[in-house]
Write a structure and sequence with these properties.
mainly alpha
């Protein structure tokens, strides 16, 4: 199971970092006794929760908000499928890059200004704008278009997860829990059903042997794990040749499987794991 941990832990680390950063932002920027007004976006398009409303009114409004949000997500996912099907991946990449630029620049910039104000740090606006522009443009390019160090891309993707997660904490409580249940049900439909949009996108990408344009965090495991797998493969090859050479003299040698001594071979572990940003 040590081999399994070598592959899983590199995925656990970024999720833990994103959660810790989000919790730190909430603790820093939240004012006790002040109720959040919500994001004011699609998650509260139908109903704006009020503390004075009854439980039934909150539940009904939350279900309406979740229905609108899920309808938008479904339509957007099918639109992405059609673009991918008709080989318009450049449109998807352009949309992803523009979205990443807005997340880093606008949403991230708003959080940065709140943090500076909360900590009472005086910085001139020119420096702030220059920093935001370089950070946002570099993040969009490194995440979607330019090859670069894997750790840099991972860092930007963790920042995206943290920023989006922080804004989701501004959603009213009833809408939050209703939306979580609705998103879980939608994921079951989108991934597991034959007509699910995500399932169709994955199958089409596998059929064409193409990458899916998406926000994907990639973990390549630890160097020790990869080295151990290579050594195991070399050892298996050597022992297999030795077994063939001595099969007539000692048939019992063939019954000994080196895979039973190594977790990587037993579990068929991959060299890398890709995690969708929605899983954060």
């Amino acid at each position: 199971f040590e081999a399994v941990a070598d592959v899983i832990m590199p995925v656990v680390y970024p999720v833990t970092i994103a959660m810790a950063l989000c919790v730190a932002l909430v603790n820093l920027l939240h004012t006790p006794g002040v109720e959040s007004a919500g994001t004011g976006g699609m998650t509260t398009a139908v109903y704006a929760e009020k503390a004075s409303d009854s439980a039934s009114v909150k539940l009904e409004g939350a279900m309406a908000n979740a229905a609108v949000f899920i309808a938008f997500i479904t339509a957007a996912t099918f639109a992405l499928f059609l673009l991918f099907k008709y080989r318009l991946a450049k449109v998807i990449w352009a949309y992803m890059g523009f979205s990443g630029l807005l997340i880093f620049g606008l949403l991230g910039g708003n959080i940065l200004l709140q943090v500076l104000d909360k900590l009472e740090i005086a910085v001139d606006m020119i420096s702030v704008y220059l920093f935001l522009w370089n950070f946002s443009a570099g993040g969009a390019l490194m995440t979607f278009f330019w090859p670069g160090p894997l750790v840099v891309k991972q860092g930007y993707l963790i920042f995206i997860s943290t920023i989006v997660s922080y804004y989701f904490t501004q959603i009213p409580e009833w809408t939050t829990w209703t939306l979580l249940v609705a998103m879980a049900l939608y994921d079951l439909y989108a991934v597991l059903t034959p007509n699910g949009p995500l399932k169709m996108i994955v199958e089409l990408a596998q059929e064409r042997d193409e990458d899916i344009p998406a926000l994907v965090y990639e973990s390549r495991g630890t160097p020790d794990a990869g080295l151990r797998r290579r050594r195991t493969s070399a050892r298996e090859t050597a022992e297999s040749r030795a077994s063939e050479a001595t099969s007539e003299m000692s048939p019992l040698i063939q019954d000994r499987s080196p895979a039973s001594d190594d977790g990587d071979s037993r579990f068929h572990l991959p060299d890398s794991i890709k995690l969708g940003l929605g899983d954060f």
